[in-house]
Amino acid sequence: KYCRVAVHSGGVKYADSAGGFSYEDSGKLLSVTSNRFIHWSTSGDTVQFVEQSLDTNLLNNAVRLRIPNCLLLPGGVCIQETFNNVIILIVTSQSVHRLVLPHPSHMYRSDLVTELQMQSIFTDIGKLNLNEPAHSYVLPFAQGTQTSAPSTSAAWISHQGEALFALASPSGAITVVTLPAHDQDGTVSILELKQSSMMQRLAGWMPTAIRGDQSISDLAISLAVHQLEDDTFIFALCQDHKLRMWSLKHQMCLLVTDMLDYMPAGRGEVKASPAQAHKLRLFFSSSIGLCLAIYLAVPKRSQFCVLQLVASENNRYSLDHISTLFSTQETLVDFVLTATDIWAVWLDNDNQTVAKYISFEHNTTGTWNQVFVQPSPEEEVHVGEDQDPREIYLDVLFSPLRFTASAIIKALQIYKRGTERYSDLSWEELKKEVTVTVENELQGSVTEYEFCQEDYRLLQVEFWSKFYACCLQYQDVLSTPLALHISPATAMVCILKKGFVSFLLPCFAIDHLYLSSDDYLISEEETPIAEDSEMSHDILQLVQCLRMVNESLPEDMAYDMEKALEDLLSPEKVSEKVLEGLLASDNGNVIQDIANKLQDINNPIVAINMLLRELDLETDAETDSRHSGQPLRVRISLSQLYGSSVAASLIGQAVCQTAMTRTLLCRDLLILQQLYLRIGNNVSSAQLLQLQQDFIPRCSNLLCTYHLLKQMSLTLSSSVPLDILNADLQHLSVLELTLIANPLFYQNVARKAIMSQIFSQQDVEGNQTMLHWPQMISSVLTLFCHWPSNPSFLFPECLMVNCQYAQLQECVRLVGPWCQVNVGSYRFVLGHCYLASGEGQKALQCFQEAAAEVDKEEFLMKLTGSDEEAATATTPRLLYYNKVLRLLEDIGLPELVVNLATLAISEAVNDERCQAALWTRIFKHHLDLGHNSQAYEALMQNPDSSRQLDCLRQLVVVLCERAQLRDLVQFSFVNLHDEVCQNSHSCMYLTGTSPKRNYDGEFAADPVSQQIDILELKDLEKEYVLARSRLTLAQQEPPSAAIAGGANSQEMVALLVQTGLFDTALTLCQTFNLSLTPVFEGLTFKCIKLQCKGDRDQTEVWNWLAANQLPTVITTKESSATDEAWRLLAHYLEKYPSQNAQYHCCVINKLLSHGVPVPDWLINAYKEVDAAALLRLYLNYDQLESAAELVLEYVDALLGKGHQYFGIERPFSATASLVWLPYTSIDQLLRNLSESQINEKNLKDKLAEYHRLVDQSSRHRLKAR
Predict the structure, then answer these.
(1) pLDDT at residue 686 tops 90
(2) What residue stretches are annotated with the NUP160 helical domain (predicted)?
(3) Structural domain of residue 31, as residue ranges?
(4) What is the DSSP letter of 162?
(5) Which of 318, 347, 1195, 1251 could pair with 331 as two cysteines, CB 3.0-4.6 Å apart?
């Protein structure tokens, strides 16, 4: 959600652009700006900024700035930080601007920030006056025709704090505009870095039609700036293919280099045409100095030149050639130069994003490294005959890896052909809105009452595919790349797109090989997976075979493998069938080619083993260790690291992408191993046996593991009603588990454990710990993917305590056939799911199965480790049974308690105390269920005599109360006969002599107390008015009749106001002496709703308006419902006057609180009564301009100009009575005006005039005395 700010400053069309800025300390763990950056995008006369953090969520972090009629120039946005501020420089075709914002480190008192959310630097940007002369300047030379607009620009902050803007003028010169430092006074200066020929400069500003030529040869098309010691160098890449370096200090060109000299061939052809798309980038470090990268955009011969600036004596400079790199791509979007690499983004012929990088120093082959960009969503969705089209399309649309919310919202607006704006919708709410919209569209098109199922299904596919195509179109637009950003501090690489930001993550070695093109695999000789060249050769050959398997696998067979994993079939058996199908349909001899390539692998068993080792997720590391010995500020920083919603979404998608890639890899490897079993000519029988008994089962388990990871990372969390959450919290307290506020596993559970493990062996004191993005994110992903085989059981526990039962059941289902870790824990959480769905018997079965693993698994041991009844049990299994019994009792399942307690008794053969407790439990629940015979048997089985007597006493009392004496006397009560008689006599005696019972032993009825109320005539009148109001409400709004029947006078006023019966509400208020404020506030709110939403619901509005007595006026204009509502409000304010116009005050307060302008008639009426109170209202709601205008008018009124409008009978004069001003409010206004940079000069002048006249009058009076 963006904050909109408009700057009015005054057309060549420039391409959309984007850029990014990372804070200097963004790579330091203990900094408030860690992992924090700003990115922006421009389009026409609008630029939008977004500040993001991977550690904390930022509030008010987006702003959209529009500068009407002033187009943003290429390179026209620059962000730099100083010690106290973040300064944004903006260059447009007609003006330059500077925004001075507070630095994050100065928005908080220290780097130790404990909040889960933080304010962005853009929070108070609305208070800035962007048109202030000190921070903006209109370019005098840009007010002519379109041909006079600059072609490109650059901006920077000097060491002295000045803001400098370099603009490439059409004459070929570079104009530099300098604004003084923001905290110093000064004037704007303009200088021009001139060309040698005066006639060339004059011709440059002439219109093209007069000048005759089409372009200026030395017109700069790309600018870059670098400050070196006391001078600033401006580098200009020009249309004549030459690079010029200007010194700002000496205002002269120090260096000119023809870039065509670095082209190997075809210079003459290129030189004949002016450059249009060349680009220039700089990189500086203290170790290597200043490097330049120049992209020469030549059709079919584009190249990058990397040069290094070398200084010699007498301020002479030269460029040393480092490298020339060629590219086959055509349309370059952006590129970035780093210390060792060039990163670049292109658009290919299919308008798809292509990203690559290359080392410009150590790359002898000139091969670019491919970046695997997430592919666009499929153009068509396949819907099976047995599948519901709506469910399939919704799954595809709302999958986390396919569409952004903004693309779906835009498609929804177009599809509905309406003006509704959808903002702040959750993913689930948006899904419901899409479903309703498409289904309504479908129902509206149906003209027949009867459809066969197949016709209706085809109609569903038609409408859902239409909406899907609309989403696809907007997703393509929003996915258009605009720029590339690399954080110097963290090495994080981002592609800035039109609608969102794509983060580039490091690719694991095994994934990189599998995803690489065949050309890359053929050209590579080594791989980080293997230790020597021979093994590298084998692995590369093996991966090529996997790629061939992938390409030869038909869609139906791939679907069969996917379906087999879903249906829990054996992947080994299914892969055998798939291989048979491939062999049977091998028309192109692809399988034979794969078999031939397998023969080239020298040691296939070792190569396969290495691949499986790289894919293996099993770990012995402890991921939930805690390091309490670290200082507090370190622990707080670690608890926030990568904790924002942006980071959670990013890592969730990264896990999903990794799991999807490795699922395919394991699938292909499994098929390949099955092929090896058939043709294993170059391996021994022992190796084939190892392949069959070890490698294939391992690969099958890995396939299931990655499939589970993929499914869980694609699964969305469900919203849980509050009552279910409260009930679940109570059940968790029985199990002594903690409810987590947010169901995201990574954000609340895994992240803290992972960070604790990563930094357990590091010294993170001081500000020396650097957050290197590729290394950190790789570690996080590696540890995060370990959870299926991790003994800590964090993920299923997180699902259980957050009531995500459907997701948890799916997880347990997918894990069941292959996972040998936490078997008992999975059975326990599945039992908890069954309890939540009301399947008690299934839950009991799961709890019984989990009992066998209680003393082996960490999660189950945690359940039993802190039990309050630990002293009563001797084994972990009995502790576990006690916990489950308490859970079943808390839920209210006595039958299951009896069954489980009976089972637990067999475990407590040698523990009489546990047996006594269990028999007592069985007795209690049998007795509650009315199973008297079973309760008696449990009583007699109890080995503890004291507990036995307690149970006996309870049995006698309950049976006597239930009048079930026949059951009582038929029990034998061996060795307990005397106690039975004593308890029975006591019970009967107490029943007979109880004052609460009659002579029959039944409970006596409560005595009826009589009371006489004396009512006067006025009381009867009040009751009549109240009853009449109820009747009126029931007639106007029949559904409210049930509520109105028992409502008192105050409640009735609220109901009448809600329904719109304001006349009746006012009558009721006057009858019962109630305040009229609720009535005026309710009517004001209805006026606000009508003002904002218009008169769409005409019938309902006119109904409640007709129920009130509207004042009659003569008018020739047709009145709307909104006008009538405002007229009714004005009528009430006039009819019901109040002391100090308090009703006027409450109406104005209501309007201002909703941001609705106050009507002039209301302001005029109120300021005549209490102008000071009106001023205070303006100040409360930051209406500074209105407040200033009111004070100016009020001072004029005191001085005699318009005094009748403020209720002033005698204005200020030498003979009039004393006058006064609300000085406290005026002082507050002046203070706010100075802070918001709004010009308060008029107000100060007016007050100075008033004080002068007061002083003059006071002196006359003193002299008169």
Answers:
(1) no
(2) 532-738
(3) 1-199
(4) -
(5) 347
